[in-house]
């Protein structure tokens, strides 16, 4: 399976999503990290590579230029793309994966940028092959998450049923260089469970 994570806007959880989808696939297969899952860090900022270097991730992480060498050795591949892909790049991303995941926060600016991405996909004739993931959803009683979901559903945008709630544990995990379930935070398990629900949707419907 090949999953690509992309976004036109920074700070929406693109790398966090790529890391945790890769962690789930590695855990789900029950195979060693060398045989199971590869995360390709195609973002010039190399946030995923730096995440790995700070600690220990249960899968392999390589830069984009090393992908061709390592990809055949792995059952699953997750690609963390560079931000703001052009229209031609976007078309290639959709064609080259089983699912394109587009994270977006539920605030107005993030949704505006998201709709630009959706518009480009529609111009390319793409009605499927991608799904939007709402990230950093604030806790109740703040209702921006539910309002954003209703708006996107009304527009016919493909959405994950699951969403990623706002958790400080994800920042701690990035600093420690581990998946969120190993972060020293009382909400770490909740953060991991959010991504498990997303990944379960992928593995059962893709």
CATH class: Alpha Beta
Strand content is: 5-15%
The helix/strand series, from N terminus to C terminus, equals EHEHEHEHEHEHHH
Largest sheet: 6 strands, parallel
**Regions with pLDDT < 50 over 5+ consecutive residues?**
none
Structure classification: alpha/beta
Summarize the structure in words.
With 206 residues, the chain is α/β, with parallel strands linked by helices. It has one domain: Rossmann fold, CATH 3.40.50. It has eight helices and six strands. A six-stranded parallel sheet has the order 3-2-4-1-5-6, sandwiched between helices. Strand 2, helix 2 and strand 3 form a beta-alpha-beta unit.
Short description:
The mean pLDDT is 92. This protein has helices spanning 14-29, 47-54, 67-70, 87-95, 108-123, 144-154, 168-176, 188-205, and strands at 2-5, 37-41, 60-63, 76-80, 99-104, 130-134.
List keywords for this structure.
206 residues; alpha/beta; Rossmann fold; six-stranded parallel sheet; 8 helices; 44% helix
What order do the helices and strands come in, and which of them pair?
Layout: E1 2-5, H1 14-29, E2 37-41, H2 47-54, E3 60-63, H3 67-70, E4 76-80, H4 87-95, E5 99-104, H5 108-123, E6 130-134, H6 144-154, H7 168-176, H8 188-205
Parallel strand pairs: 1-4, 1-5, 2-3, 2-4, 5-6
Helix pairs in contact: 1-8
């Amino acid at each position: 399976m090949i999953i690509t994570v992309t976004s036109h806007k920074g700070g929406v959880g693109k790398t966090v999503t790529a890391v945790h989808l890769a962690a789930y696939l590695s855990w789900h297969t029950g195979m060693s990290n060398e045989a199971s899952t590869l995360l390709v860090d195609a973002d010039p900022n190399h946030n995923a590579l730096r995440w790995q270097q700070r600690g220990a991730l249960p899968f392999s992480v390589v830069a984009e230029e090393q992908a061709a060498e390592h990809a055949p050795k792995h059952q699953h591949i997750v690609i963390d793309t560079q931000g703001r892909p052009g229209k031609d790049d976007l078309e290639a991303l959709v064609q080259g994966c089983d699912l394109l995941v587009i994270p977006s926060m539920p605030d107005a600016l993030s949704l505006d940028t998201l709709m630009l991405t959706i518009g480009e996909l529609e111009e390319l004739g793409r009605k499927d092959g991608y799904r939007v993931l709402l990230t950093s959803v604030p806790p109740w009683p703040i209702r921006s998450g539910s309002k954003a979901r209703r708006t996107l559903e009304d527009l016919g945008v493909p959405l994950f049923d699951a969403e990623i709630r706002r958790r400080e544990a994800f920042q701690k995990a990035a600093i420690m260089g581990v998946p969120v379930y190993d972060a020293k935070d009382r909400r770490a398990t909740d953060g991991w469970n959010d991504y498990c629900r997303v990944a379960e949707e992928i593995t059962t419907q893709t």
